[in-house]
Amino acid sequence: VDSDRRDLDMNNRDVDAKKLARFVRINELRLVTEYSPVTAIGVMQSSLQFNLLLITDKMSPKHPERMRKFRTAAELYKGKILFILLDSNLKSNERVLSYFQLKKSQLPALAIFHTPDDEHVVLTVDEISIEHVQDFCNRFLQ
């Protein structure tokens, strides 16, 4: 995916359809992964310990430009931080908004999350910029 390659060891005799499907699900993550029930497994099982969520309304006219900037920033942290898009319009994502104590009126927002210890920081922003994302990530990583 995205210019990365992962191989499943097929020499192992106990590979079945379930294990193959799990391998594909976990390794189908993109430079920016859209969070959904299908991708949740891969996101949670990612080897990257830092997740950066862009929590935004995909129906907004500003969405394509936000995503362009978010993807550009994701290139800078490839292999360090998993970049995730979370659509605030989906009912299934309301629990994530609640977890980060965000209301739709506070969006768009960036939320960075360290998976081993559940440490996280949320930043509400008027506009997404590559510089905002870089500054936010660098401060959290330090």
From TrEMBL:
Highest taxon of source: Eukaryota
Gene Ontology BP annotations: protein folding; response to endoplasmic reticulum stress
GO CC field: endoplasmic reticulum
Family: Belongs to the protein disulfide isomerase family.
Protein name per its UniProtKB record: ERP27 protein
Species: Cettia cetti
Lineage, top ranks: Eukaryota, Metazoa, Chordata, Craniata, Vertebrata
